Amino acid sequence: MKSLDDLSVTVLWGFLEALASALCMNIYVVGLNQLFDIEIDKVNKPTLPLASGEFSVTTGVSLVVAFLVMSISIGIRSKSAPLMCALLVSFLLGSAYSIDVPLLRWKRHPFLAASCILVVRAILVQLAFFTHMQVQALLTYMPTELQINASCSFGFMPDAATYSEEALRTNKDIPDVDGDRDFGIQSLSVRLGQQKVYRLCINMLMTAYTAAILVGASSPNLYQKIATVFGHGLFAFVLWQRARQFDIANKTCITPFYMFIWKLFYAEYFLIPFM
């Protein structure tokens, strides 16, 4: 879409299909992980519904299955190959990440865990959903000419998401060291220590923002140059300020900092349309 003139009922419906199916699939993946992590979460996150006993295992299973069925049903109804591809791969990798059977439970291994998250969130979701929405727009105006038009922001999306997702993945395991170690989950925080992983997270984001600023500064488009340089400069400054106040020894600081990284991740999406 290049202007509001491209917005139609078909495009809006395609957007809602992608949003609803992705939300349901995300609930399935997160819920499945909690079902297989009940004992770990009693140590790491005792306030979660299953770990605290607020939800029974039966309730958890019912919700997970229901949201999986809803997600796949929406995908099938959409008749969108890119959307169905994203949902099916998310289902397969999300299941392999959590299910505790031989050859699965990939979250035990740092490389496999990172691969699952990066493939789905940093690459598949960006490319598949972009293609899905392009097809919806083209079906409205040029049904016989389904040509996918990429832009600079389209090329930037996977790169930005890769760094942000990797920072989120490494940061989320920092407070979970005790439970992960007890149950054999070899996260980076368990292997390297919380302080090293925290520094790695900050360095990855700072490197990404610096690279984005350099790329933006070389852009011939003035508006893209301003948006990219100023936006990522602001992200880097805010991150630096927050990092100065962070104390790895204070457990009450860890979760708010993790949520702050999520805010930076979503802020990137607001910046992408201006690039």
TrEMBL record:
Membrane topology: Multi-pass membrane protein
GO molecular function, one term: transferase activity, transferring alkyl or aryl (other than methyl) groups
InterPro entries per record: UbiA_prenyltransferase, UbiA_sf
Keywords for this protein: Membrane, Transferase, Transmembrane, Transmembrane helix
Localization per record: Plastid, Chloroplast membrane
Transmembrane segments: 7-30, 50-69, 81-99, 111-130, 197-216, 222-240, 252-272
Classification via PANTHER family: HOMOGENTISATE GERANYLGERANYLTRANSFERASE, CHLOROPLASTIC, HOMOGENTISATE SOLANESYLTRANSFERASE, CHLOROPLASTIC
Family label: Belongs to the UbiA prenyltransferase family.
Listed name of the protein: Homogentisate phytyltransferase 1, chloroplastic
Source species of the chain: Panicum miliaceum
